[in-house]
Amino acid sequence: MGLSQSMRAVCWFGPGEVGVVEVPKPQLERDDDVVLRVTSAAVCGSDLHALHGKIPKLAPGTVLGHEFVGVVEEAGPAVQRLSVGQRCAGAMFVACGRCAACLAGRHLKCAAYAMFGLGDLMGGLQGAQAEYMRVPIADMTLCPIPDGMEDEAALFTGDILATAYTGCVESGMGPGDVVAVVGAGPVGLLTVACARLFGPATVFAIDLVPARLDLARELGAFPIDASQGDPAELLRQATGGARADVVIEAVGNQSALETAWKVAGIGATVALVGILVSESWPQSAGNAWLRNLSIKTIVGQPYRHRQTLLRLIQSGVLQPQAIISERVPLAEAPEAYARMDSRLTLKPVLKFER
Question: Is 184 exposed, middle or buried (0-12, 13-18, 19+ CB in 10 A)?
Fold first, then answer.
């Protein structure tokens, strides 16, 4: 296969198996497509679900990844808002932007909905951890990066930063609230940064890893080390007896879910930002009713919020690139996956040097 027709990509081959292999370079398939030359792609926590085979209908050989920035290499004749050579950040999923669901902001109901790099269950699009990718409905999916803004500053606007901000908006948090963020991983840390924009009295970050809690403190949170005792009791000690008005669960596992229920006060909102696959509710529906808990499941909405987020980044109010823990060449992607899976690194970003 000639160099002009092939590229390197991170592919999934089975539970626990990812590798960098040569695959066919994508081509334009529809008039509204763009072929993007990827310059940076991040490894996301949901990619770890794929790594462990928790995503149904994920076929061996699938190119992974859905957090990306790049340069337009080729554009179809129907693409109107983008030009060859333009730097862009991508959304994690595709939607048409024109149907009734999209116009109402309910992009998950769009008939064209598909997510990059998570297999046939999510629409079958190949992912972004590759030298090139095909981007459908490009005028909608891609967002130009403002002049003067570094690529890495815009990298997370299409997924985890948008998810963190969506969780804050949809939780209804406001001035004076006690907010607890369960998990100081990438999404949790960005949730801390976004929560400060809504005027809460205190934002608590709950985790087990001291380095992550240190970074949460730098971003404006009061850290709670769950290895030092019951997080609910530690929070009550810090607040003079109160529990949280708003809880953001930002991990997506059973332990974090149980912690979120423990720290939630009467009448609290619990927003589930972490991806939950097979976890059980910590309490019965009756107990949740008696505590008057409002439970919200959160899917990030980049199309609603990315322009706001870009303005906040441009002004210096948000600096999401602060959570990047390492920058590695594409060839070292499997090792980066292993480090992230073992919590030895926070947020690796793959760099594409040609």
Answer: buried
* Confidence grade of residue 279 (pLDDT, cut at 50, 70, 90): confident
Beta-sheet strands, E only, within the chain = 6-14, 17-24, 34-42, 62-63, 67-75, 87-90, 93-94, 114-115, 132-135, 142-144, 178-182, 202-207, 222-225, 244-249, 264-272, 294-297, 326-329, 348-351
Name the nearest CA neighbour of 246 among 335, 345, 175.
Answer: 175
Take residue 110 and report the two structure tokens written for it.
């769009």
| Model pLDDT, residue 2 | 41
Entry field: residues in the chain: 354
Q: Using one digit for the tens of pLDDT, what is the confidence trace for 303-324?
A: 999 999 999 999 999 999 999 9
* Cβ atoms of residues 94 and 66 within 8 Å: no
Distance, in Å, from the CA atom of 144 to the CA atom of 259, rounded to the nearest integer, reads 39
Phi, psi of 17 (to 5 degrees): -120, 110
HSE, CB side, 13 Å, CA atoms: give it for residue 68.
30
Q: Which tokens in the block code for residue 68?
A: 């990306």
Neighbour count for residue 248 (Cβ, 10 Å): 32
pLDDT digits (tens, 9 = 90+) for 77-88: 999 999 999 999
